[in-house]
Amino acid sequence: MIHAQRTKSVNIVPPQAIVDDASWTTAEVDTKGWDYAEIKCYMGANDIAMTALAVTESDTTGSGHANVTGLIYGTSTDVTGSTSALPAADDDNKYFTFQIDLRKRKRFLDLTATNGNGSAGGFLFAECVLSRPNIGPESDVPGDQGYANTLRV
Fold first, then answer.
1. How far is CA 20 from the centre of its chain?
2. pLDDT, average across residues 112-120
3. Burial status of residue 77 (CB atoms within 10 A of its CB: 0-12, 13-18, 19 or more)
4. Rounded mean pLDDT of 102-124?
5. At 83, is the pLDDT very low, low, confident or very high (cuts 50, 70, 90)?
6. Does residue 109 contact residue 57 with C-beta atoms inside 8 Å?
C-alpha cells in the first residue's frame, strides 16, 4: 500500500445548513490506533467572523472534553510564530487546520466551531485525517479508510 493511502478520513462537520450565532454540530473522533491527526476546516461563504474554533480532547467518549493548549484559534501561536486569528468574514473558501501528534494526547478529539451573529451566517465543512497507524493490517477496504467507495488507476 502507498503510504498516503494508510490514512482514515473521519467527517467531523458534514455539509449542513448555514449557521448564524450558533455552533456547528460536530462528531467526535476516536484516535485509537493512530499516531497523527490533521483536522481540516474548510470555510464556505460567511458574512461574519467565527467566535470559536478549537480542538478539545477527552479520555472518555462523549464527555469531559477540554480545549487542547496550542489548538485554539485566536490565542494559540501558529506555525510561523504569530498569534493565530479566528476565521474572519472574508475568509471564504479557505482552510484552517490543526496538526496533532496523538502519541501524548487523550483518545477522543472533537471540534468547537461557533459562528458569530451576522446577517446570514456561514458554512463550514470539517474532517479529520488520521495517519501513521500503529496497529492493524494495511487495508484496501474503503470502509476501513472512512470512504463509501474508492476508484484507483
1. 20
2. 97
3. exposed
4. 97
5. very high
6. yes
* CA proximity to 108, closest of 31, 7, 52: 31
Q: For the chain, which domains are there?
A: 3-136 (2.60.120.1110)
Joined together, the cell numbers standing for residue 146 give: 472512512
The tens digit of pLDDT for each residue in 61-80 reads 999 999 999 999 999 999 99
Strand extents, DSSP E, the chain: 7-13, 29-30, 34-46, 50-58, 66-72, 95-101, 108-115, 122-133
For residue 106 the three cell numbers come to 487523550
What sign does the dihedral 21-73-67-10 (CA atoms) show? positive
Query: What is the distance between the alpha carbons of residues 85 and 97, in angstroms, rounded to a whole number?
Result: 12
pLDDT 10s digits, 128-149? 999 998 865 566 666 677 777 7
- Name the nearest CA neighbour of 111 among 34, 56, 52: 56
The contacts of residue 125 (CB under 8 Å, 6+ apart) are 13, 14, 15, 41, 42, 44
